[in-house]
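I have been asked to look over a protein record a colleague put together. Thanks in advance; the entry in question is below.
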Amino acid sequence: MRIGVFTNCYHPMVNGVVGVVNLVRRGLLEKGHEVYIFAPAFDDYVDVEENVYRFKAVDLTKEVKYPIAIPYSRKINQVLNGLELDIIHTHHPFVLGPLAASVASKKRVPVIYTFHTQYELYNHYVPLPKTLVNQMIRRRIKNFCMRVDGVTTPADTAKQLLLEYQIAKPIQVIPNPTIINTQKVNGDHLKIKYGLQDERILINTGRIAPEKNLGLLLRAFKYILERSSDSIKLMIVGDGPELNNLKVLANELAIADQVIFTGLVPPEQIPEYLAIADLFVMTSMSEVRPLAQLEALAVGVPVVSVKAPGAQDNIVSGENGLLVSTDVADIGDNVISLLSDHARMRVLKENAIKSSLRYDYRNITQEYLNFYQQIITEYQKPKQEVCR
């Protein structure tokens, strides 16, 4: 099968969508399929992968490093004209999404869209009234879904949201993939690097942006430090527009010495960071089946997460982690209680690994292939009927 993938973000960016695109691409190639990626350029980054095509791009804002593709390229048009694709897969309803739908229509092949993001929770990036922005987002997603032949989303809660949008196209829930490594990951060198010998470690990984609600994490960590007898460090792994503000907040809360901001870490090294952690703590409310949580579970790190739609699809409270409220004391008390209960932690760690097996990228890739074939078959039916 030949698959054209259109995404508004790709390497070297590090976020959940890039992780999904990368792992599904890997799974498809391993199964002998052809994958062609169409994405924005990122400064002078040079791709080492085959069949990756870049549109010229401009940054979202001066403060936010997020390249926005200019969805026209004579060179890429020539490439597309010469490709015989079986299906097109777009990961966004904006910018390159409409282009993907137009290319699919021109080539007379089906197109599917993956709804990764609760865009309404990102309305702070648009300098307009939030109610107006949310109405525009809903209308845009609904209208875009009318142009595609099928929709996937990583979580049941996200599917329910799409149904509330009155999306009438086939919607398939396909979880985000991760790499399940049956070999124990070793991160001991990181303990040496950061001077972590006897400390308990809380960790959060991902893009550092306002919607991740990391200010709440810092306030909860201050609460924990004030009440726990353990020596504890918080490691925040990643980069993003909110990083400097978080460093300022850590200083204001007088916890800066206990917080480690690693900056950007290559995705392939994330498991090593997770391997040294006791708990993964997430305070974001904007995720759709967070890939960061799945990565933590795969390494055997239980997750303490605020109760949000995405987290509820990954975490079974009391089995592979805990779901808590957004109250600082609730987050802090549950973390302290878990860290002091070694028997409970051992059970949660075992269950974390077991629960992650479902999300191995090879299994998820097969689910995408099954959906591709279903949509291709449905797309071809009218043509077959006309020919009879």
User: Anything to note?
Assistant: The chain has 14 helices and 15 strands. The two ends are 26 Å apart (CA to CA). The longest helix spans residues 361-387. The chain has a mean pLDDT of 91.
